[in-house]
Design goal:
The complex is a heterodimer of chains A (115) and B (109). Chain A has 115 residues and is mainly β. Chain A is built from no helices and 11 strands. Helices cover 0% and strands 54% of the residues of chain B. The chains are: A mainly beta (115), B mainly beta (109).
């Protein structure tokens, strides 16, 4: 399966600041996703990162708060803007190879804490 | 109704026990099914795909029941190291997967 590198692995940020998380894949993948998992909760899909166009956001998530870039088929970034304590969570990048019924694979995640 | 539903548990079982989890999906057009394992504070990792005819991988057996729209995971001879959260996922061909909320398993000595 694809090797997914996610940076940073963890960070502690001040309220009101922003954090950008990077996701690098070692092969071209059709689909890349960003998830959030709050402590003790299940995975929540934030958005699908589309190569060369605006991301597709799920209900409850907006571009102003979670801007996403995907300049090519191997790289994406998620920015969490105007941080508040409610943004403390694990953020996970996930990829799905092209072709049929392939599983998704996840990066190691970014653990974010807000002071 | 959620697209993919699981009993959150926890399931508390002794070592050596057999335990089974079910997961129901609402979209009858779903074509692909998977079980993932997530350890505490780690990312989900693919455990196994679920095939129409059922499939086995060591102590783990996965089955699909299209008529009733559920998939199952059976773990035989439970080990302490099997303690984790098990997530099921269903997808439509080339589309994103929909994940359940996970079932927590605790295997005790």
């Amino acid at each position: 399966s694809a090797v997914i590198s996610q940076k940073p692995s963890r960070d502690i940020c001040q309220r009101g600041t922003s954090l950008t998380i990077q996701c690098q894949v070692d092969s071209q993948v059709t689909m890349m996703f960003w998830y959030r998992q709050q402590p003790g909760q299940s995975l929540t899909l934030i958005a699908t990162a589309n190569q060369g166009s605006e991301a597709t956001y799920e209900s409850g998530f907006v571009i102003d708060k979670f801007p996403i870039s995907r300049p090519n088929l191997t790289f994406s970034t998620l920015t969490v803007s105007n941080l508040s304590p409610e943004d403390s969570s694990i953020y996970l990048c996930s990829v799905k190879p092209s072709g049929g019924n392939q599983p998704q694979h996840f990066g190691d995640g970014t653990r974010l804490s807000i002071l | 109704r959620k697209e993919v539903e699981q009993d959150p548990g926890p399931f508390n079982v002794p070592e050596g026990a057999t335990v089974a989890f079910n997961c129901t999906y609402s979209n009858s057009a779903s074509q692909s099914f998977f079980w993932y394992r997530q350890d505490c504070r780690k990312e989900p990792k693919l455990l196994m795909s679920v095939y129409s005819s059922g499939n086995e991988d060591g102590r783990f057996t996965a089955q699909l029941n299209r008529a009733s729209q559920y998939i199952s995971l059976l773990i035989r001879d439970s080990k302490l190291s099997d303690s984790a959260t098990y997530l099921c996922a269903a997808g439509l061909g080339g589309q994103k997967l929909v994940f359940g909320t996970g079932t927590r398993l605790l295997v005790s000595p």
